[in-house]
């Protein structure tokens, strides 16, 4: 990797890293803001729940007091008009001790006026309920019980203790208030004998880890015991916060993924370009050698004709001219192949399908390949497909199969055994060419159809070539909408399959 490429890579990676870092801090701060909002919400819900639970307890005791005052065996309710005060005075007296009584001329919730008759139950109920409400607002809501009459005071004390603060009654109330705020995070109550309502309290690390959100402290006004202050503790509200962040979080996450993917893709492309550059250099070296050989041979023949008086000898003249002609034809064919591969790679060539006999053409190519080689070549052909006629471009079909057969011969040292088998696979005529050559390693096998790629041993190629053959084959197969497959083991030969639609 040169210095310029390295600088660009460092610059891109740094820029992307900064974007990722900024995105991370933005998401982190946004999460923190939502966590603080959650803390405020649960504190408000907890405060409302405490008030509601206390109000429900007062409602219960108030109702019990009203019913108790209607019990004539325990209380006597009377009323009369006071001329001096110009008011109606209503009295509650202990039925067991008439001197133990309490009187009132005004009530907090009603403007009751009139003389109370003994049999006026409806009016008596209104008086009882008015007294009960007064006891609630003056006593219960101030967490104090005044002994206005002994048996009433005792009754209120007993029921205040019976309906004292209890987390069992508080839990469903708090759950309902949290539900109204779409909060469904597990919680538990934390009770203490002493605490600070200013929320100044230290909690051990283990507790804060398990319950990171702890509400403010509120007094319970419990008459007995050490449970004088209560808090609500919540487990990690991650799911709630993520749901609130919603599309914002999803968008940020998508940006992070896209940036990370872009970085990986950029790195992959850079290393791919480096690999292609090496393949290109290798290709140039190979193709230069391929060009030099016919040029050098033709040049030597022409030089012999001009410098060694060969022109006087017609036989030698014809021999050198034939050498020159053959080498120039070879050079022209090589140039045409390179130009054709460029066209095939862009899929800009067209095919002219026609019906032809597959068996005859394949046997002809095998026979010709075996006849012109300087090796001992044995070939075996077997068609089990029951397909003998194929609709394809005959010329390109021949080029593709010829390339595969040539590779089989070229990469097999010594005696060559080629097996060609035809079969039908999922509506395609699969033509498999198997050799007994040097084979291909598992690392190189996936890349054999890449343009310019050649399997090498170190920095040397022991077989002449330019890495265009199988790329050419691939373009022809794709143009016919077929498929191809390579199977090989190093030292165990290679099997190439080309499939054509039938």
From TrEMBL:
One GO MF term attached to the UniProt entry: phosphorelay sensor kinase activity
Keyword Phosphoprotein: yes
Record-annotated membrane-spanning stretches: 7-26, 245-267
Domain of life: Bacteria
Keywords associated with the record: Kinase, Membrane, Phosphoprotein, Transferase, Transmembrane, Transmembrane helix
Residues annotated as domain Histidine kinase: 286-502
Matches recorded under InterPro entries: HATPase_C_sf, HATPase_dom, His_kinase_dom, HisK_dim/P_dom, HisK_dim/P_sf, Sig_transdc_His_kin-like_C
Catalytic activity: ATP + protein L-histidine = ADP + protein N-phospho-L-histidine
Pfam family, one: HisKA
EC number: 2.7.13.3
Protein name: histidine kinase
Species for this entry: Mucilaginibacter segetis
